[in-house]
């Protein structure tokens, strides 16, 4: 129950509030007596619905007890940060599902024992910058999903980074695009069925490129025996199209 208003008829003296009271009673008393010191004991639902209002009275609250502490509250990352003083008054092991966290805050939130799960919402550049941290953070299972705010902008990474951060990348949802660089031919051919990989830059010998992709250089072209960069894209048929001069095509 969210409390929207109180009246003088709900006034309780400070002495009368020496025992824990519900959220509605506490807010009624504080409206009339702003210096009262109060203990709250109520359901997680009632506490959760009034977190913003209770935060304004954090200095007046001596303790907050959930009657059903196994129930998980929901909040955004910004709101969760604003509740710091209020949450210090909880006597129970409160839990939150935190949404819309930045990639930078992901590892910190996952390490918080009061965060049951979290989701990240950030730009591809910011997520890319923190991929390794998200991959190796404490309690990685807490990360439920990653949503990009600019999914049309490709995230560029090396083949090694792609392989090393597979757990974090598996949490990405919605439409997003990856551009992989530095893949050998054998690895690149395995990207053909990956809808989100739009282009691959292959670093390998021409012989390996031909062996694994079937691509041969045009007649008269120099057949390179040493590693060189070959451009490949994944087309609509999910096949690898290799060339040496441009990136073109799409994976839809």
Helix/strand-derived category reads alpha/beta
3D shape: rod-shaped
Strand proportion: 25-35%
Radius of gyration: 28 Å
How many DSSP-defined strands? 12
Gap from first CA to last CA: 47 Å
Pick out the low-confidence regions.
6-12, 218-228, 244-252
Number of helices: 11
Tell me, rounded to a whole number, the average pLDDT: 83
Strand order of the largest sheet: 3-4-5-6-8
The portion of residues assigned to helices is 25-40%
User: How would you sum up the major sheet?
Assistant: 5 strands, parallel
Write down the secondary-structure element order: HEHHEEHHEHEHEEHHEEHEHEE
Structure description:
By secondary structure, this protein is α/β, with parallel strands linked by helices. It contains 11 helices and 12 strands. The chain has helices at residues 23-32, 44-49, 51-56, 77-82, 84-87, 103-110, 124-136, 159-164, 166-169, 185-189, 206-213, and strands at residues 38-42, 61-66, 73-76, 96-101, 115-122, 143-148, 155-158, 172-173, 178-183, 197-204, 228-234, 240-243. The chain has a 5-stranded parallel beta sheet with strand order 3-4-5-6-8. Strands 7-9-10-11-12 form a 5-stranded mixed beta sheet. Helix 6 runs parallel beside helix 7. The chain starts with 22 loop residues before the first helix and ends in a 9-residue tail after the last strand. Residues 6-12, 218-228 and 244-252 have low confidence and may be disordered.
């Amino acid at each position: 129950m969210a409390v929207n208003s109180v009246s003088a008829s709900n006034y309780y003296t400070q002495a009368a509030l020496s025992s824990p009271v519900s959220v509605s009673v506490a807010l009624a008393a504080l409206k009339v007596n702003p210096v009262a010191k109060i203990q709250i004991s109520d359901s997680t639902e009632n506490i959760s619905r009034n977190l913003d209002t209770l935060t304004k009275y954090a200095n007046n609250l001596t303790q907050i007890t959930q009657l059903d502490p196994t129930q998980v509250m929901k909040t955004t990352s910004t709101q969760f940060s604003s509740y710091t003083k209020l949450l210090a008054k909880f006597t129970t092991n409160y839990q939150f599902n935190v949404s819309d966290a930045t990639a930078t805050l992901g590892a910190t939130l996952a390490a918080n024992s009061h965060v049951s799960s979290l989701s990240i919402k950030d730009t591809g550049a910011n997520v890319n910058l923190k991929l390794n941290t998200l991959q190796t953070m404490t309690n990685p299972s807490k990360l439920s999903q990653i949503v990009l705010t600019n999914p049309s902008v490709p995230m560029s990474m090396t083949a090694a980074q792609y392989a090393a951060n597979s757990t974090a990348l598996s949490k990405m949802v919605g439409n997003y695009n990856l551009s992989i660089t530095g893949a050998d031919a054998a690895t690149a051919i395995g990207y053909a069925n990956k809808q989100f990989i739009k282009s691959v830059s292959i670093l390998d010998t021409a012989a390996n490129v031909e062996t694994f992709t079937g691509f041969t250089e045009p007649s008269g072209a120099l057949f390179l025996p040493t590693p060189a960069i070959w451009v490949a894209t994944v087309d609509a048929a999910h096949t690898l199209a290799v060339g040496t001069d441009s990136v073109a095509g799409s994976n839809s």
